[in-house]
From TrEMBL:
<feature type="transmembrane region" description="Helical">
    <location>
        <begin position="188"/>
        <end position="205"/>
    </location>
</feature>
<keyword id="KW-1133">Transmembrane helix</keyword>
<feature type="transmembrane region" description="Helical">
    <location>
        <begin position="302"/>
        <end position="328"/>
    </location>
</feature>
<feature type="transmembrane region" description="Helical">
    <location>
        <begin position="335"/>
        <end position="355"/>
    </location>
</feature>
<feature type="transmembrane region" description="Helical">
    <location>
        <begin position="278"/>
        <end position="296"/>
    </location>
</feature>
<feature type="transmembrane region" description="Helical">
    <location>
        <begin position="104"/>
        <end position="122"/>
    </location>
</feature>
<feature type="transmembrane region" description="Helical">
    <location>
        <begin position="163"/>
        <end position="182"/>
    </location>
</feature>
<feature type="transmembrane region" description="Helical">
    <location>
        <begin position="478"/>
        <end position="495"/>
    </location>
</feature>
<keyword id="KW-0812">Transmembrane</keyword>
<feature type="transmembrane region" description="Helical">
    <location>
        <begin position="72"/>
        <end position="92"/>
    </location>
</feature>
<feature type="transmembrane region" description="Helical">
    <location>
        <begin position="453"/>
        <end position="472"/>
    </location>
</feature>
<protein>
    <recommendedName>
        <fullName>O-antigen ligase like membrane protein</fullName>
    </recommendedName>
</protein>
<keyword id="KW-0472">Membrane</keyword>
<feature type="transmembrane region" description="Helical">
    <location>
        <begin position="134"/>
        <end position="151"/>
    </location>
</feature>
<feature type="transmembrane region" description="Helical">
    <location>
        <begin position="20"/>
        <end position="42"/>
    </location>
</feature>
<feature type="transmembrane region" description="Helical">
    <location>
        <begin position="422"/>
        <end position="441"/>
    </location>
</feature>
Amino acid sequence: MPASPDFPESDSQSSREETALGAFEHLLVFLLCLTLTVVPLVLHFVNPLLAIATQLALASCVVLFFTPYAPLVVVFALLFQNLFISMMSGFLVTKDDYNFVRGYNFFTTVVFWLWLFGHYALNWRSFSRMTNKLMVVCLIGFGLIGVYFLLGLTKSPAGAVVYLRNIITPLLVLQIFFLATLKRQIPMVPFFTILTVIVIVMGYIEMIDRRLWLDLTNGWTLWEFSNREAMLNLVADKSARTTGQYITGILDLMKVQLFNTPLLGDFRLIILRMNGPNGHAISYSYALMFLCILMLTNKRWYLALLMAPLVLFASAKGAIIMGLLAFCALVARKLFGAMFAIGSLAVVLVVYILLGVVTGLKIGDFHVLGFMGGVYNFIDYPFGNGIGDAGNLLTNFDKLDWSAFQHAGRTPVAMESAVGVLLHQMGFATFGLLAVYFWIALQVYKVSFVSRVNLHSLACFITITVVVNGIFQEEALFSPLSLGLIMGLNGYILGKFARSGEDL
């Protein structure tokens, strides 16, 4: 199998297209990204209705007149919006205000999708069989989510809205990349290379001098605002009494054991965990690993090498496991063929699940306890309780008795596990939604049989692995920077293939 030096065109073709793109177009792309990310945040503190109306107008203009750039705007907003919120955090008044402004990138994503899907729906007969098949499968996923969203609205409207965003975003991003690529394919390498350089520069500032990073981003104010309720409830004092770890300032909140696991035994290396421009360590780890994969498959290995320390200090096991298993499967494909590679990956993931659950129950791992809570909830009521009925975002962790949960071998309701939460919220429909993700991964793998591009195989492998990681993390499936970015890559690959006129 020939190497894949690009994303995902051939090397010479990529060079010609990058030259054609030109510096002006690069500047335009990042100007659009900044405008749609920053303007609504600034206007929100003037008048929220003005911010929403402006964002609706801006997003509509971009998707109508600069359609190929819409996916790039989505990626930029998902990665950097929280950085700009941090810079403006001095204007935040209430926690509801904070939660509201974080929803603007989702609003942008929805507006893009509505325009693109609306155009498709009006002209679906003119699209290829492959395109229509993909859209129908995605609609099945949307339908399952929609039914349980309506059920959740009757119980907890706020919770239903929060978890709707988390659950539906990967499919929205997939279709945005897919439909935009169908209209016009642009080279992705320049954008993601520049994005990677920006992430590396920011990452090294944060890693080398955390105080300077917090000064530059106004992070002190955001961290104080985010933890104000915990400080009022004397959570730090309670934690010190049970763990012996005293919280004396913001930096102490960032201290964790490397990889945050007791499996390392007496090797307790305490680090200042990195959170990245998006402000969340696990999501940041997945974004870094995603960019590493893109850079390695595009012969930009030096950028991937520079990101390795950032991945280490973001300290998320799931992202590292995803990258390692994907590259091992790629090696297996080169040595033994495509069917052996996908089959061996499936076997390894089954063993990974079994070992993870058994070991997690023995050591009282919170993620496994949360997953088992979802399994017990499913067995008790397999029809689902509605989106927003359980999960990390709706749980007050300060009041949980983890020692009692460890003794019981599960939590009372699902948490700390995306699959566990889905089993509680969507019941049997969970298997339908997960089947949609696996089906999409297999379609991309079929494309790799024709294209013989390494990145196409890796896209399939990381999709399957991150879905399995959802058993042990909420963020694996619910963070737009994990499954969301990966689905965007799948959408681009499938869109390019459908644009070529071939069928699967």
